[in-house]
Design a protein that fits this description.
GO molecular function, one term (chain B): ATP hydrolysis activity
CATH topology of the largest domain in chain B: Rossmann fold
Distance between the termini of chain B: 35 Å
Order of helices and strands of chain C: HHHHHHHHHHHHH
Helix content of chain C: over 70%
Strand order of the largest sheet of chain B: 6-7-8-3-9-10-12-11
Structural class of chain B: alpha/beta
Largest interface: A-C, 44 and 55 residues
Helix content of chain B: 25-40%
Shape of chain C: globular
Strand content of chain C: under 5%
Radius of gyration of chain B: 21 Å
InterPro entries (chain B): AAA+_ATPase, ABC_Ni/Peptide_Import, ABC_transporter-like_ATP-bd, ABC_transporter-like_CS, Oligopep_ABC_C, P-loop_NTPase
Oligomer: heterotrimer
Number of domains of chain B: 2
Distance between the termini of chain C: 8 Å
CATH architecture of one domain in chain C: Orthogonal Bundle
CATH class of the largest domain in chain B: Alpha Beta
Shape of chain B: globular
Protein name (chain B): Oligopeptide ABC transporter (ATP-binding protein)
CATH class of one domain in chain C: Mainly Alpha
Number of helices of chain C: 13
Number of strands of chain C: 0
Membrane topology (chain B): Peripheral membrane protein
Structural class of chain C: mainly alpha
Chains: A mainly alpha, B alpha/beta, C mainly alpha
Enzyme class (chain B): hydrolase
Chain lengths: 294, 331, 320
């Protein structure tokens, strides 16, 4: 609320982040997405406390068992408990999403700020690199890289991170180009601040809204890529479980047809996670960008 | 009442926002006489633009609602017309010029196309005749090279030129009423003067009434016959232009006058009105201007004054002014 | 306009060279010895060495690259290790299938998504808008291959409405109209997957583009002229929204060409995606290199197309 004092104009503003938070909270889908994600993260972190089996505990006497009291989502081809592996798989999928996005954000933000702030040659070169990366057919390059680097969780993170920074770079660049023209940057220059100080202390904080929204969607992309690569056998390697490589069970026609518990739960989890992230992403975009809000 | 072209009665327009309901126009009534210019003055956010959009029934849906009042134009209540009938009035009998010539024209259509749209819709002109009429209109608004400009896109024209195009579009169907919403605010000073000149000429040549909305009292003194001063969604003063400038009664109007630079009184410091307009969610209980008024009395804090006629043809909404009149009567 | 296109074409050259260098370097830094597979195992050591030298196995990567480029510009993209025939022949057999699938998906989704997006935007916050938005969000969130597997399980395996995979019934030699029907029958499921996902993202995009345009001042001007709401939306608003929508459509074309790898693989659709996946599994380097570059080239041309469309629709773009 703006409170106006009669004689000296004291104005109390609601802080911007509070306004945004209020807007975010009014978006029911975004709140729902947040709750689902929190539950998923908690179950992934505390997996060992929730389940009674070991992740890789095999029981060759009990393979391909239907869901039962002992195994609420049945067992797989080695008699391992599917529910247990799903929770552990969540750790892999969520951390791939987070870490690959961190890689993309670091590359994209640094290059985006440099291109936007310095302009001219730096901009031309960086934007050409962006063009090059944007033309790469993602999955083709990803499977090639995966074949070269070998399937592993770290390689999936690196591949997804290194191939996914372009959109965030373009957005940050555009933001920086418009922020650069504002008075406070002029003021900072007049005060004799170095370019690096201006870029990272004064301009960067003003691009946070864009970065947050794109990073959220980047996490979704990371999880999708992990699932895709692992599904093709080029991502996370067994016995380490991930939602993607558990889905690969469906490549066996028998399992696809008769053993739904092997692939539908992991597919649904990927889907629900991505959906929740998209809900949150939409909510954040509306909350942080008043232009789009009616 | 034959000489009244538009009569607005007790108009209330509200907006639903996520923070709550906002009453943008609160119980506003005024008349526009035939062939005359009514000026509406006020700071941004005082409801003057929403008033004009309400007359056109262009308040953004679904959040904006005209919740009360009548708008009588040509013996019809515009608020009671169905969509089809109001469309046949828009751009035809009542037309509008907006503040931002840079964004008010559609960037992907040529100037000629945008003018001819209204012509074809309302006058039934077709083909070559439309084009001829467009060129004629562009010449009326004094656009050089009209024959060329007609095929150009808005981005190829300067701000002043675009505003001329907007005016040409607005007068294309000989409207009875023209609403000009801050038509010169976004323009350079020299261009402003040219556009005002053009509009004055048009008033003389074409027989139309104008509602001229602005925050600039200088523009009002040049253009208007009658003046309505709005503050926080309400009319606070209403009089002829002479009376307003000779003897402003409301302290807000006085404040506006004092905050204008004057060539005559050199060296004087410019005064400004302290504070800001109240938040629509936190309206004062009494007079909306009271928190910024240096002359307020106790009554101002608790009760909103009515808009009363203090002199003949001079209405004001101010307890202090009302009291003075009362004192005079007693004496 | 001609100059604008030429300039855009010239700009593509350094980008394409960059792509080819990175791809080439990436693929040739792979450990393993695929060349061995090309050579008859019965040769003695000396002959083998000679052959390896001849085909450039010992060259450094830059030398290999230059040799490759000089052959490529003459139309010689090398031999596929797996198929033992020219890479161009292998790719030519497959690219048509990919184009068929992606163009169909793009066409159908545009026809569905744009009107839905417009209605959703003009009726913002209505029940229709709410349902359409949620369905679209589902569409952009569901992993393609999971959706594909679900369709295979329900429609192909359980209900036996469609074939599980491939492009035509094996072992039957159909001709004419029957062959077309057979291909359509095989195409249905992958087409549903690609179309649904493309429709979802295009609808979301159309909706937000329209919402943004509908807030513009010129829309108010159009209404103030007395234009009917249909003309305001389909003429004034849509024409502006189409500027960005057409960009998205052409860019999706590139994306569909490269992004269909998973969908093609799941359905064993004999297109570029499946081909490249198999090439990677077989370490068929000449095929991977050329295939990747071919898709990159398609993406580049799709981007060029979007630039041209942009210039055609938006008069504000200057050609010089």
């Amino acid at each position: 609320m703006d409170v106006i004092d009669k004689n000296n104009k004291t104005l109390d503003y609601t802080p911007l982040w509070r306004l945004s938070l209020n807007r975010f909270r009014r978006n029911k889908l975004a709140v729902l997405g947040t709750i689902v994600l929190i539950i998923l993260i908690i179950t992934a972190i505390f997996a060992p406390l929730i389940v009674q089996y070991d992740r890789d505990e095999q029981n060759l006497l009990k393979i391909y068992q239907k869901p039962s009291k002992a195994h609420i989502l049945g067992t797989d081809e080695l008699g391992r408990d599917v529910f247990t592996r799903l929770l552990y798989g969540g750790r892999v999928s969520l951390s791939v999403g987070l870490i690959s996005t961190t890689i993309s954000v670091v590359i994209g933000v640094v290059l985006g700020i440099i291109a936007g702030y310095y302009g001219k040659k730096a901009d031309i070169i960086i934007m050409r690199i962006v063009d090059i990366f944007m033309c790469f057919p993602f999955f083709v390059i990803a499977i090639t890289m995966a074949a070269i680097l070998g399937p592993s969780i770290w390689n999936v993170m690196i591949i997804t991170g290194v191939l996914g920074w372009t959109s965030i770079c373009r957005m940050v660049r555009a933001e920086v180009m418009s922020i650069k023209e504002r008075e406070f940057v002029e003021a900072a220059k007049a005060l004799g601040l170095t370019n690096r100080e201006i870029m990272f202390k004064h301009i960067l904080p003003n691009t946070f809204a864009v970065i947050i929204v794109y990073a959220t969607l980047g996490i979704a992309n990371g999880i999708l890529s992990e699932a895709g690569l692992s599904f093709l056998g080029l991502g996370v390697k067994q016995p380490q479980p991930s939602w993607g490589n558990m889905l690969a069970a469906a490549q066996n026609l028998q399992s696809l047809q008769h053993r739904w518990w092997l692939w539908i739960p992991s597919g649904l989890l990927v889907f629900i996670t991505i959906l929740s992230i998209n809900f949150v992403g939409d909510g954040l975009r509306d909350a942080l960008d008043p232009k789009l809000k009616q | 009442m034959d000489n009244i072209i538009l009569s607005v009665r007790r108009l209330v327009t509200e907006f639903k926002t996520s923070e709550g309901k906002v009453i943008a126009v609160n119980d506003v009534s005024f008349d526009v006489e035939k062939g005359k210019v009514l000026g509406i003055v006020g700071e941004s956010g005082c409801g003057k633009s929403v008033t004009s959009l309400s007359i056109m029934r262009l308040v953004p849906k679904p959040n904006g609602i005209i919740s009360n009042g009548q708008i009588i134009f040509d013996n019809k209540d515009l608020l009671k017309l169905d969509d089809k009938d109001i469309r046949s009035i828009r751009g035809n009998e009542i037309s509008m010029i907006f503040q931002e010539p840079m964004t008010a024209l559609n960037p992907v259509f040529t100037v000629g196309f945008q003018i001819s749209e209204a012509l074809e819709l309302h006058t039934g002109l077709k083909g070559e005749n439309v084009r001829k009429k467009c060129i004629e209109l562009l010449e009326i608004v004094k656009i050089p090279r009209a024959k060329k400009v007609i095929d150009e896109y808005p981005h190829q024209l300067s701000g002043g030129m675009r505003q001329r195009v907007m005016i040409a579009m607005a007068i294309s169907c000989n409207p009875k009423l023209l609403i000009a919403d801050e038509p010169t605010t976004a323009l350079d000073v020299t261009i402003q003067a040219q556009i005002l000149d053009l509009m004055k000429n048009l008033i003389d040549e074409l027989d139309m009434s104008i509602i001229f909305i602005t925050h600039d009292l200088g523009v009002i003194s040049e253009m208007a016959d009658m003046v309505v001063v709005m503050y926080a969604g309400k009319i606070v003063e209403e009089a002829s232009v002479e009376k307003i400038f000779e003897n402003p009664l409301h302290f807000y109007t006085k404040g506006l006058m004092n905050s204008r630079p004057s060539l005559l009184k050199k060296g004087d410091k410019l005064q400004c009105i302290q504070g800001m307009i109240p938040s629509p969610f936190n309206m004062p209980k009494g007079c909306a201007f009271e928190p910024r008024c240096n002359y307020s009395i106790d009554k101002c804090k608790v009760e909103m004054p009515d808009l009363l006629e203090c002199e003949k043809g001079h209405k004001v909404r101010c307890w202090v002014a009302h009291q003075k009149v009362g004192d005079n009567h007693e004496r | 306009m001609k100059q604008y296109i030429i300039r855009r074409l010239l700009l593509m050259i350094p980008v394409f060279i960059g792509i080819s260098i990175i791809t080439f370097a990436l693929i040739h830094s792979t450990p393993g010895d695929p060349y061995i597979m090309m050579i008859d195992g019965n040769l003695n050591v000396e002959d083998r060495e000679m052959m390896l030298r001849e085909i450039g196995y010992y060259d450094s990567i830059p030398v290999k690259y230059i040799k490759w480029v000089s052959r490529a510009v003459r139309g010689d993209l090398g031999y596929s290790i797996r198929y033992r025939e020219p890479v161009t022949d292998v790719m030519l057999r497959r690219i048509g299938n990919t184009l068929l699938l992606s163009f169909s998906a793009l066409l159908i989704s545009s026809i569905i998504a744009i009107p839905l997006g417009i209605i959703s935007a003009t009726k913002q916050y209505s029940i229709f808008d709410y349902i359409a938005t949620v369905i679209a969000l589902i569409g952009v969130s569901i992993p393609a291959f999971f959706f594909a597997l679900g369709l295979i399980k329900t429609l192909a395996v359980d209900l036996k409405l469609f074939p599980i995979s491939g492009i035509e019934t094996i072992g039957v030699n159909l001709t004419g109209f029957k062959k077309v029907l057979d291909i359509l029958h095989h195409m249905a499921l992958p087409l549903i997957v690609l179309t649904f996902m493309q429709t979802a993202s295009l609808m979301r995009y159309t909706r937000s583009a329209m919402l943004e345009v509908l807030q513009q001042d010129y829309i108010r001007t159009a209404r103030a002229k007395g234009l009917p709401e249909k003309a305001v939306i389909y003429k004034h608003a849509l024409r502006n929204a189409m500027i960005s929508i057409s960009t998205l459509i052409t860019i999706s074309l590139g994306y569909l060409l490269s992004g269909a790898v998973l969908t093609e693989t799941v359905f064993v659709w004999p297109g570029m995606g499946t081909l490249l996946y198999q090439a990677v599994s077989n370490r068929d380097y000449p095929l991977i290199t050329s295939g990747t570059l071919l898709i990159a080239l398609c993406v580049l041309f799709a981007n060029l197309l979007s630039d041209i469309l942009y210039a055609v629709i938006d008069p504000r773009i200057r050609y010089d």
